Amino acid sequence: MSSALVPALAVFALLGVVLAVVDVRTRRLPDAILMPGGAAAVLSLCAAAIGVGEPWRLLGVAGGAIGAFVTCLALHLARPASFGGGDVKLAGLCGAFLGWCGPEAVASGIAAGVVVGGVAAAGAVLAGARGATIAFGPFLVLGTWWRLLTGPW
């Protein structure tokens, strides 16, 4: 990993923590935090691509963002009460960072978040909390960080 990528990852880490806390507390991912924070994170990621002399990574960043967004939009359209619009936008941001590593990272990182979130939801149902809701944003961030920390750069 290049040192030029560290600021982008720091912005994403800070934003991820803030959004996870807000989502757990309110079950919402507010645009007032997600949109400007996401823009700053993606711009820093773009600056890192240029800084390391690999502008081709911008295609991966864009492709990852679009792929994750569209995939999660399908989940939202299928189950709007279970997978909110904020989760879709957050998935696009996560996909941008995963796209730095490649399409496999996008697929595995988003899938990991969906699977872990599904396991948590199943656990809540099994524990007798049928009407309970879970915050899905933290699981998307967790799946993204899992893939970023375990995969090749």
From TrEMBL:
Pfam families: Peptidase_A24. Its EC number is 2.1.1.-, 3.4.23.43. The chain crosses the membrane at residues 30-51, 58-78, 105-125, 132-149. GO terms for molecular function: aspartic-type endopeptidase activity; methyltransferase activity. This is Leader peptidase (Prepilin peptidase)/N-methyltransferase. It comes from Microbacterium trichothecenolyticum. GO terms for biological process: methylation. Keywords: Hydrolase, Membrane, Methyltransferase, Transferase, Transmembrane, Transmembrane helix. Belongs to the peptidase A24 family. The keyword Methyltransferase applies. Residues 11-112 form the Prepilin type IV endopeptidase peptidase domain.
